[in-house]
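FAQ: What does the model actually see?

It sees only this:
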Amino acid sequence: MAPPSLVDILRYIGREEPLTGTVRAFPGLTREDLGRLLESAAGRLAALPPEPLPEPRAPVKKPEGPTPAAPPSLRLFSDGAARGNPGPAGAGAVLMDPEGRVVARLGRFLGVQTNNYAEYMGLLLGLKHARSLGVKELEVLADSELLIRQLQGRYQVKSPTLRPLYEEAVGLLKQFLRVKLAHVPREENKAADEMSNRAIDERM
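And it is asked to produce this:
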């Protein structure tokens, strides 16, 4: 059986995939708009000479020996940036161990979004990675007073855009044995701020 062409793959994605993440990342873009974009791209590709898909890479072998133990506790610095608010936005997170050693630096480009949206996405980025590491105790530090106060239950979440992000964050926080939430000055959150801006500059 011949491998599928890129045209076939694009048309299948446009027809079958929900594409909710992409639609959410670009306000004003509908599922139908995205389907038409994919169909248009497939049409342009179909007019080009056929190009074979790359050969699959051999799986990476895992190192032998015992798996390193997951750090029992970490500090999560999270941040978000939007140039224009709304404007090009990025989420950033940095995980550190209790001795201040960096465990992970994370960044993600979000398209055009608001600053508060980016703040929540930076938090979610860090929480998911911490969970993947098997962390039990987490200290969350962010320079967004709104985000921290909402998670503490001191501020209401009135924005319909932020509400699902808030609920997802609360659900993830409940999966840790112990969580501490702290609002910190911007100068103490430079590492996460750097990652959120790198995400915009480098389209991470």
